[in-house]
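Hi L.,

As promised, Single-stranded-DNA-specific exonuclease RecJ:
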Amino acid sequence: MRWTLLEKAEVSKIHQLQESIGVDKSVAELLVKRGIESFDDAKSFFRPDLAMLHDPFLMKGMDEASDFILQKRNEKKPIMVFGDYDVDGTTSVALMSTYLRSLGFDILSYIPDRYQEGYGVSYQGIDHAKANGIDLIVALDCGIKAIEKVKYARDLGIDFIICDHHRPGDEVPEAIAVLDPKQEDCNYPFDELCGCGVGFKLVQALQMKLGKPQKEIYKYLDLVATAIGSDIVPITGENRILAHFGLKLINSRRRPAFKAILEQTKKKELTITDVVFMIGPRINAAGRMKHGLLATELLCETNLEKVKALAQNIELYNASRKDADRSITDEALKLIKDNNEEERFTTVVYQSHWHKGVIGIVASRLTETYYRPTLVFTKSGEKLAASARSVKGFDIYEALESSSEFIEQFGGHKYAAGLTLEESKYEKFKTRFEEVVRLSINPDLLIPEIPYDTEIQFKEITPKFIRILKQFAPFGPRNMKPTFVSRKVSTTGFVKALGDEGLHLKANLVQEESVITAIGFGLGDKKHLMDSNQSFDIIFTIEENEWNGTTTLQLNLKDLKESD
């Protein structure tokens, strides 16, 4: 493991912030590293305020979109609300469908079939709209590159309003309005909204045009927060405000769907991480194993009996997803060992029977195990389809481009991609991809990295420090949970191996006169370092552990090594 100090903050900025808000140096350093450099920055960061949400009409196309929808209301015309099958898409459709129905619209919610239609706006969806007498489709979390499909719809007399957050191509679809803050000529102040966030801005605009109070639509922020966390967008700026108040809603007045999903949890207060790992996978499981529309139906439903039945079905899909994920991962690991491929620069595996809905998850797991660019293939119709995952610092999209003579089509970005190819070209592709990565990757990138914020002493971990640290939440990209290094640490003598085969560690650690309990998941093989009489260095986050109604402080160890 490489321990890498995040870019150093300017000492003068740290001192200025220390003086202006009256915090310790270590807290000021954490803040400056997150772009918080003044009293006003700190106030916005620590005291999110819904009044600070940007005016939705600053977004290009918002006037046209809201006017056109309200015109349809006057005409009493039905609308199709179309969204992707992942968490961002299904929450977007749930939010928009519920809101528009509250205004009296006749709404047809539509999520494309992951396997029959694929990602984004589909011809089948447009045909379904036509068959149901619909002449307006509001597309959420997709559509920014659907040039031909929007043209096809227009030829059928169907208009589009697009609410997307993905980067546009050289041209955008000819829609009534395209709402996407990543458009170069859009002057909206924050361009990192998720699809559900863009949908919420449209709802805000409609509420304003109707002269209704904004507080009436804050009940949808639980959906927005779930999408923000699950879609891994930066939790800064407007996203931080939306996530903060969405989480408050989840923890105070849970919608029936979330109550049913979270029925078994004993946690008093959920974090954004809990939402991502407890709610997100279950919503995604519907689209992976059955159909994403089932997730949207659950999120919209208010009848408790129906909610319970839908939640039970989605729990079954999630169990099937976990079983498929586990068995395919085990098979893939065995394949790598049996084929003596453990020392390669890439992982490329294929079995025709693997479930297409989970190969992306399996690719991520294999990347965690071998930490190298990874592709997991399965059969999809007459072709092979793959999910690709990379390691930090290596552009897998470029590597695929360099291997493209064997690929039929591919898309994605630096760290994740999807592709299809003919089965007859699989072995040639596998050889070429290995060669491309071997010749282009910096070997250091094949060693897992743990970035950390700063070094601290145990004596700095005071109740005040913990209280301030908790206020850094919600955590996510560009505001990750602070990670620390402490050096020359030893144990009090209490060191215990936990779990099957002693995979985990628990210990009481001491530095000078300060003692703190620590847990190290997956660090059982480092127990000998704690058992020796030598001091060691640790890299960790600070957690609160809830057990039997009692909350205690503990360090969550990421790694440890001998002190110099």
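The chain has three domains: 2-47+450-562, 56-251, 339-446.

Thanks again for sending the construct details.

K.
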